[in-house]
What we know:
Layout: E1 7-9, H1 10-16, H2 21-29, E2 37-38, E3 45-48, H3 52-63, H4 68-76, H5 80-120, E4 126-131, E5 134-140, H6 147-160, E6 170-176, H7 177-181, E7 190-194, E8 205-207, E9 210-218, H8 225-237, E10 240-242, E11 245-250, E12 263-272
Antiparallel strand pairs: 1-3, 2-3, 4-9, 5-7, 5-8, 6-7, 6-11, 9-12, 10-12, 11-12
Amino acid sequence: MEDKSRLLTIGQFAGLHGINKKTLMWYDEIGLFRPAAVNPVNGYRYYNYHQSALLETILLLRELNASIDEIQDFMKNRSAESMRELIDEKIRELDLEMEHLRAVRKTLGNHRQNMDTLLSMDLADITVVEKETRCLVTVDIDQETSYDKQVEMITAETRKCQLRRLHDASYGTMISVENLEKGDYDSYSKLFIEIPFPTPKTELHIQPQGTYIRAFYQGDWGKMSSRYEEIFDYAKSHNLSLSGYSYEMIINENVTDRKEDYIVQIEIPADFRG
Length: 274
């Protein structure tokens, strides 16, 4: 642009910055951003190129969800220091939002993987898979822990982990291999929550990286013991030893309302015998 002091019409200036001219009119009405000149006869507003930097700052702050009050306060005390403080605050907010979006992305990926599994699985299959390390938040339970108490503990842990909603996490139950081998199929040890982002909570359960036996179960939960017996037979025939915990997680409760249709994914650490 050859003459940067030349006045531009409100339409030209709005077009230059990719906004509606009504936005400029509103900014003028609330005293946030005034035109360089106003025609006293017809009231037409005119702007010059030198105002572009300030308008772009306002538009950036609005894009970062700064309120009009915040921007007006900044405009009244405009300085490098106040600008830096406002930018720092918005960077912190943006970092939190990006962290949340990464968590949502991971959660969606988990749901997609579960749907892929549902669409391709054979419920009768038992397979060996390799898994990465997972950090889980856990709460201890036993046969005396009521359902209401379990809900209360899960709710408390999700709040500690600063989850926005329960769908931000994957959750399930853990039962020790030792209890399974003794036939104590109802002696669950823990509820677990896998959160999709780092947590300040220090007491975490580490689900180890390595080889796992994976199986699925659908039907009467009271008869899941028969599925575990099949898993033990599979491990024995494939020269595998089981250890640690069995991690149980329902993978289809977001696509069915009937408890009897729930599909439980079972994963147990396994090592090949020497």
